[in-house]
Amino acid sequence: MSREFIQTVGIPTIQVLIAVMVVPLGIAYLQLVERKVLGFMQVRLAPRRVGWHGLLQPIADALKLIIKEDVIPAKADRFLFTLAPILTVMPALAALAVIPIAGRPFILFGYEIRPWISDINVGLLYLLAISSLGIYGIILGGWASNSKYSMLGALRSSAQMISYEVPLGFALIGAMMLSGSASMVQIVEAQRTAGWWYVAPQFLGFFCYLISAIAETNRVPFDLPEAEAELVAGFHTEYSGMKFALFFLAEYTNMIVVSSIVTTLFFGGWLRPFPNVESIAWLENGWLVVGPLVAGLFAGWLLDQKMGTGLRLMFAGGVLGTVLGVALAATDVGGWASAQVPTLSGAFWFFLKVSFFLFLYIWLRGTYPRYRYDQLMSLGWKWLIPLSILNVVGTGLAVLVVS
Amino acid sequence: MKGDPAISRDPAAVLRDLLRQFLLLELWVGLWVTLKNQFRPHITVEYPKETVDLSPRFRGMPRLRYHPENGEELCIACHLCEVICPDDCIHIVSEKKPEGKGKRLVSFEINYERCCLCGLCVDPCPTKPLTAIYMSHDYELADTKREGFVAPLKALLDGSQQKEYSE
């Protein structure tokens, strides 16, 4: 095999495999984090039985879903019923392809490895197209189940997604106009040149996007398609076992994708805060925090085990580790900053921002009640669409005036 | 409320309300509440492993008492609890004592499938100062067989053994 072949085909294939395998694992733990955070918000203990503080709970859940009987209702359309979860999960995973994790490629064994799978010049358009495909799976799943709850859930879902696709798209256009490109990498680079994250000039766009994205991923407070109090479980009422797991996977992958898009378009992707201010260049070393943080947590945990102090020392160790890490990054001991590891630095900031938005999703779920159907529609059509159009017009005018 | 002519509102209040709505103030307040709650200590317990403290007057399953001095059963087989029980879940068989006055128990059964834990059986119990039948702090009613719900005299006197749970 020629080097060129490995560079152009082999490495992207490996990257795809890593993405497709790592993301579900991450999602399993994202779900544990969600259950934990929701539990704490409701002043109760979250899963604790399987493993230490419930750390093996996702594995147990996954095992249960795999072993569970895969029921297909007698009156269901077997082909579409099986096709629907696949149709839902594939676009969700495919959307990960254009998301850049860090800025600069690095060299490994003489091969150039880019921290994104593909950087196409219509990245944003691709994302919009792909993310609106996912709805087919939901509609088909609801229809093929031949059940009234599934049908109603699917109907709601289609109405909701069609309504919110419009402000979603409009909200992204602002960032595209400012950067003059639809490539995800170019958009982040444009933010570096501009010297600020696009959330500042595009706050309205960000706001509209965030709300529409929550509606688009069917999460609380817009989770009408699976409103359990009215519709049992909405479009996936009849699904069990692995097929249900696929729907589940798709929902959480979409959450990650949407958080990544927000991060990339409005929060500077892999850039540190204020990417042009030289005096805080040490923030590039932010990833140095991870080592002391993990070490501090682990040491604190070991001491906790010995002294029976619950988790207090672990918490203290985490705080100490963070302080130490920040100090390490700020004072640049050992010349880590001059070593310049842009990939690690970028990945750190990217994942930090994405984690914040994932937490925001859970936070909103722990806080807000579900919208009523007509409220959902009026919010979408009467507020978000005009606001996002206003944002597009305003941004256009501003770009025109400045140039 | 909104648009009600009966309530005249001064412009400052209207402006304040408008600002509250526009800045989504209520939503932020809600988010702040859930954020704070995360750091409060939990109030639920991991039930089989740890249990909550019961109040002294907690009404668990009705049980029988031993005589505090001679260790025999305190019950004098007067059948009053059997009579008052609204669920007819107490079943007593008694016989005349071979020597001396009064009766003694042959068997005393409570069917916990029927018992509604109302505590009415304790009220008419004539033994003083302690009632022979009392509402205990046992509350773990589950069993795998129907027969397991009918408690014989021995079980009633000794109460349920606290079950031990391991990791």
Please tag this protein with its features.
heterodimer; A: 403 residues; 14 helices; B: elongated
Overall pLDDT metric of chain A? 83
Main sheet record of chain B: 3 strands, antiparallel
Count of DSSP H/I helices of chain B: 4
Output the helix-strand order of chain B: HHEHEEEEH
Sheet with the most strands: spatial strand order of chain A: 1-2
* Strand/helix succession of chain A: HHHEEHHHHHHHHHHH
Q: Quick check: average pLDDT of chain B?
A: 81
Q: Helical content of chain B, roughly?
A: 10-25%
Structure class of chain A: mainly alpha
Radius of gyration of chain B: 29 Å
- How many helices of chain A in DSSP terms? 14
- Biggest contact: A-B, 14 and 16 residues
C-alpha termini separation of chain A: 50 Å
Indicate the overall shape of chain B.
elongated
Shape of chain A: globular
How much of the polypeptide of chain B forms β-strand, as a percent range?
A: 5-15%
User: Structural class of the secondary structure composition of chain B?
Assistant: alpha+beta
- Report the span from N to C terminus of chain B: 57 Å
Profile the largest sheet of chain A: 2 strands, antiparallel
Descriptive notes:
- The complex is a heterodimer of chains A (403) and B (167).
- Chain A has helices spanning 3-41, 57-67, 78-94, 123-144, 148-179, 184-194, 203-216, 228-231, 241-266, 290-307, 312-331, 336-339, 342-367, 373-402; strands at 106-108, 111-113.
- Chain A is mainly alpha-helical and 403 residues long.
- A two-stranded antiparallel sheet of chain A has the order 1-2.
- In chain A, helix 5 runs antiparallel to helix 7 (203-216) and helix 7 (203-216) packs antiparallel against helix 9 (241-266).
- With 167 residues, chain B is of the alpha+beta class.
- Chain B contains 4 helices and 5 strands; from the N terminus they run H-H-E-H-E-E-E-E-H.
- In chain B, the strands form 2 sheets. In chain B, strands 2-3-5 form a 3-stranded antiparallel beta sheet.
- Classes of the chains: A mainly alpha (403), B alpha+beta (167).
